[in-house]
UniProtKB/TrEMBL annotation:
The chain crosses the membrane at residues 20-39. GO terms for cellular component: proton-transporting ATP synthase complex. The keyword Amino-acid biosynthesis does not apply. This is ATP synthase subunit J, mitochondrial. It comes from the Eukaryota. The keyword Transmembrane applies. Keywords: Membrane, Transmembrane, Transmembrane helix. GO terms for molecular function: proton-transporting ATP synthase activity, rotational mechanism.
Length: 60
């Protein structure tokens, strides 16, 4: 083995990180659910910046 290739580290990397991966997925799901709920709320459903808003035929 050439000298510029480092030795493999004999420790586990992915297995101890499983709780952090799971927490990340849960947080991303919660943020997405909250954003979708806000876009569907009465306050923001007619906002022109809302991607789910219906186009206003009067605005040209």
């Amino acid at each position: 083995m050439p000298g510029w290739i480092p030795k493999k580290f004999p420790g586990k990397v992915a297995e101890p990180m499983i709780p952090f991966y799971a927490a990340g997925v849960i947080v991303l799901y919660a943020i997405n659910a909250g954003a979708n709920a806000m876009m569907a709320s009465d306050e923001y459903k007619n906002d022109p910046r809302n991607p789910n808003a219906k186009p206003n035929p009067k605005a040209t």
